[in-house]
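=== Per-residue structure ===
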Amino acid sequence: QVQLVESGGGLVPAGESLRLSCVASRSIFSINVMGWYRQAPGKQREMVATITSGGRTNYADSVKGRFTISRDNAENTVYLQMNSLEPEDTAVYYCNAMFLRLGASYNFWGQGTQVTVSS
């Protein structure tokens, strides 16, 4: 198991930047995939960005070129650098850790951090 704690959310005007952090309670070296997801009011949770243990990244089309995910194994932390924020980015952002073991996947979630972008 792993506990995840997000931070870095806030209220910013459009065009500004924020950096989210997700600190894990244990080493993330062996976590297969870590990622950021978001959920806006009245909408389903969606993937924003993921990064594998090998450093491979994947982004939602809506954030490509604006957001960057990275992981610091020494600090047990995953970051999401968000630039050129838009009002449509307003949501609760959740950190996710996924383990792949013997053909099954195990997901753990943080409590979320609110990001609000004003127009």
Q: What stands out?
A: The CA atoms of residues 18 and 82 lie 5 Å apart. The chain has a mean pLDDT of 96.
